[in-house]
């Protein structure tokens, strides 16, 4: 049925008129990426990520942060395993029942090595496997170290792995008795018929020997020796270090300044 009036139009049947199909012209520009730089899922265009290349994480992924890189961790000191308690042994000396030698390593003090001023001595006492058995520290006055040098009075405390004081070594103010030290000291019995133990100085390296007065010693004794005698040998070793291998004069002994 056609419309009546000045603006009439022809009538159509039940079917709509046919139009030519719409032709899609290809877009000359690639589709835009999302704000995070990751192409949409399934995108295979020229900007698709290639295998082996990393892409930015999606918004839901946690952002990775750079961790500050510090100095490498220092190796922890390995202590000797604590032996079982022994009722026939003074407390703390159980370690000496299972060893036949001790390595006494004096710790290098940086201030003393650079300036030459005498500082408090510290020692590591180790077994033949390099495990620390005890730790020894000197307790002395600054003026005593400055004026008297190796002749100073001191107290050395020997501690175990939990910080308990095992022994006190007390030395009063004295004077040196030998100007030509020997690198091997033997401890004999009262009747001088047998050798109880040996104390020997070990080479510490050219730098330590020239620039510092820190020394290394070895103590050897029979395995079945009384632990009290072993403790006496340990004290004798530290006394030998002070009497023969410490700088005898007071004040500074040169340190690294001797190189200039």
Automatic annotation (TrEMBL):
Keywords: Calcium, Lipoprotein, Palmitate. It comes from the Eukaryota. Transmembrane segments: none annotated. Its cofactor is Ca(2+). One of its GO terms (cellular component) is plasma membrane. Pfam families: Scramblase. One of its GO terms (molecular function) is phospholipid scramblase activity. InterPro entries: Scramblase. May mediate accelerated ATP-independent bidirectional transbilayer migration of phospholipids upon binding calcium ions that results in a loss of phospholipid asymmetry in the plasma membrane. Belongs to the phospholipid scramblase family. This is Phospholipid scramblase.
